[in-house]
Amino acid sequence: MAWGALLVVLCLCLRALAAGPGTTPETRGIFEGIESKFSLRTPAIPDEDICYLVPGQKDSLAHCSFNHTSKTFLVIHGWTVTGMYESWVPKLVDALYKREPDSNVIIVDWLTRAQQHYPISAAYTKLVGKDVASFIDWMEEQFNYPFENVHLLGYSLGAHVAGIAGSLTKKKINRITGLDPAGPTFEYADAPMRLSPDDAEFVDVLHTYTRGSPDRSIGIQQPVGHIDIYPNGGGFQPGCNLGEALRLIAEKGFGDVDQLVKCSHERSIHLFIDSLMYEEKPSMAYRCQTKEAFEKGLCLSCRKNRCNNMGYQIHKVRTKRNSKMYLKTRSQAPYKVFHYQVKIHFFGKENVTKTSQPLLISLYGTTDERENIAFILPEISTNKTYSFLVYTEVDIGDLLRLSLQWEKDSFFSWTEWWTSFTFDIHRVRVKAGETQKKMVFCSQDGVAHLQKGGEAVMFVKCLGNPVRRRKAGHKPISEIKTDP
Ligand SMILES: *[C@@H]1O[C@H](CO)[C@@H](O)[C@H](O)[C@H]1NC(C)=O
Ligand SMILES: *[C@@H]1O[C@H](CO)[C@@H](O)[C@H](O)[C@H]1NC(C)=O
Ligand SMILES: *[C@@H]1O[C@H](CO)[C@@H](O)[C@H](O)[C@H]1NC(C)=O
């Protein structure tokens, strides 16, 4: 009898010990359903799960050296075929710790639920989101860990997990970054089922693989945050084409084929990593109604929050409506480019309209130059003004001069053989997106004759530049309106 009673007491004590201090049977009940795991990574070992924070077990926080006073990033992966973390995970962890050395970077491990058939995993986002919300609420309840210190980063399906988590916490968390949120089953879903601006104080989204019809697109096409950035138009990313794929296979073998399939989708993560690494040189994105208007260079304005940094250092601008922003990038890190709007009026004596014209532009600046940037003007017509976007991968400094060349068509054409098309150009107007500087360039001969198939024509800063005609101390150069 006595032995039996002792055994019962001993068992109870052991159970209490195992559950740890601060854990009552009720709280354990709340957390029992949590299947997701919360792995606190360290700057020294960013690629391994060495310590798990267990909701309901307060001592797991001390055990894992969770820093209560600094911010916390929760990284949420997406659907997985292999059931393993993808190679970007340690890269993102590493970049977060480099940028915020005192922070807590936690990987939300929901791999078992993420490796089902896609629709099943997609449906699991609800449960995983609930797990994440319980975890955040628990931290707040246990030791007043502030919701303002929480930043969720979700990739693909993980972005919707983050959204659902954010909608369920007791108070709004600080920020959610959606990295190419998954499209299938979410494109037409109601806001509570997916990532939406209501899910955090600030929601920013990168869309990198929104290709095809909306129901087929890997990444969600509609804007789902306060700020939605569509790098390179959001459809497809440079360096992810088939030619590049074949080159990589030749170099590295078939091991990376998986990587190539996801290239554009995963680019969202690498762009974010880039923003963590190159603190002093954030890529700039510009608000624009349409991708087409951006391609014409019409949206390089920074007034009224129309431009913003892409990635970590974004300004938290909350407009009433979703705002779509665009930028160009390089095909690999560092991704930043420098955007220019170029505006030209084509004078001529005869009415001529030509479509799809190949041109080359060279930009010479104070620190560097970029020659023969090829672009296609969809149309050139006599006595009309055209605006287009060009960008450089290098920072050329302040633009000093530029040249234009009008190339021959790639096919032989008799009409071009007999008639040489020439347009006269008086001025070339340029606006630099990154510096917001406006400049006007003139031909040294007064008027430049741009001939199809002819030589490049050079433009230098205009003398008696209309821009200089401002009253001293008045409007800044960028404010002066230049007419065509
Ligand atoms: C915790 O983070 C704070 C900054 O938020 C830092 O000052 C402190 O040194 C960190 N503590 C430890 C033990 O790393
Ligand atoms: C284009 O404009 C110029 C001057 O503004 C004029 O001399 C010329 O005749 C116009 N060309 C055509 C085709 O109308
Ligand atoms: C060129 O076209 C415009 C409008 O289409 C017309 O007003 C003008 O007279 C034309 N000029 C010539 C030289 O044919």
From TrEMBL:
Gene3D superfamilies xref list: alpha/beta hydrolase, PLAT/LH2 domain
Catalytic activity, EC: 3.1.1.34
Reaction(s) catalysed (UniProt annotation): a triacylglycerol + H2O = a diacylglycerol + a fatty acid + H(+)
Main location: membrane
Record Pfam families: Lipase, PLAT
InterPro entries reported in the protein's UniProt record: AB_hydrolase_fold, Lipase, Lipase_LIPH, Lipase_N, Lipo_Lipase, PLAT/LH2_dom, PLAT/LH2_dom_sf, TAG_lipase
Enzyme's top EC category: hydrolase
Protein's GO biological process: triglyceride catabolic process; very-low-density lipoprotein particle remodeling
GO molecular function: apolipoprotein binding; heparin binding; lipoprotein lipase activity; metal ion binding
Keyword Metal-binding: yes
Signal peptide from the UniProt entry: 1-18
Annotated PLAT domain residues: 338-461
Source organism superkingdom: Eukaryota
CDD domains, alphabetized: Pancreat_lipase_like, PLAT_LPL
Post-translational modifications: Tyrosine nitration after lipopolysaccharide (LPS) challenge down-regulates the lipase activity.
Keyword DNA repair annotated: no
Subcellular location(s) per record: Cell membrane; Secreted; Secreted, Extracellular space, Extracellular matrix
Keywords for this protein: Calcium, Cell membrane, Chylomicron, Disulfide bond, Extracellular matrix, Glycoprotein, Heparin-binding, Hydrolase, Lipid degradation, Lipid metabolism, Lipoprotein, Membrane, Metal-binding, Nitration, Secreted, Signal, VLDL
A GO term from the CC aspect: very-low-density lipoprotein particle
Active site: 156 (nucleophile), 180 (charge relay system), 265 (charge relay system)
Membrane topology classification: Peripheral membrane protein
Binding-site residues for Ca(2+), renumbered to this chain: 194, 199
Family that this chain belongs to: Belongs to the AB hydrolase superfamily. Lipase family.
Function statement: Key enzyme in triglyceride metabolism. Catalyzes the hydrolysis of triglycerides from circulating chylomicrons and very low density lipoproteins (VLDL), and thereby plays an important role in lipid clearance from the blood stream, lipid utilization and storage. Mediates margination of triglyceride-rich lipoprotein particles in capillaries. Recruited to its site of action on the luminal surface of vascular endothelium by binding to GPIHBP1 and cell surface heparan sulfate proteoglycans.
Quaternary organization: Homodimer. Interacts with APOC2; the interaction activates LPL activity in the presence of lipids.
Name of the protein this chain belongs to: Lipoprotein lipase
Lineage: Eukaryota, Metazoa, Chordata, Craniata, Vertebrata
